[in-house]
Amino acid sequence: MGFSKLLINEQREIMQQLNQLVRKTAQFQTSEANGKLISIPSGDGMALVFFQSLEEPVQCALEISRLVKNYPRLCEWEPQVDKQVRNRRLRVAR
What we know:
Strand content: 5-15%
Mean pLDDT: 79
Number of strands: 2
Structural class: alpha+beta
Number of domains: 1
Strand order of the largest sheet: 1-2
Radius of gyration: 16 Å
Shape: globular
Distance between the termini: 22 Å
């Protein structure tokens, strides 16, 4: 919602930063080095397919959530989204 209101150049920059951040995670690097990861580009990011265990995607997600806190640009549109969702809920509830 909020992300789509950004200029195309801003969206592209944010997606590049997010993809770089994901590739920096230890789990991504380990799984990729072992040949146990498929990274599939998509229109708004990437899909990751891990092959060794069920814990791998969870570990990667935890690492991403810790790292993303150091990149305020990746999250600055988030509060706007939360506000929009909250407003829609209020309208529906009335």
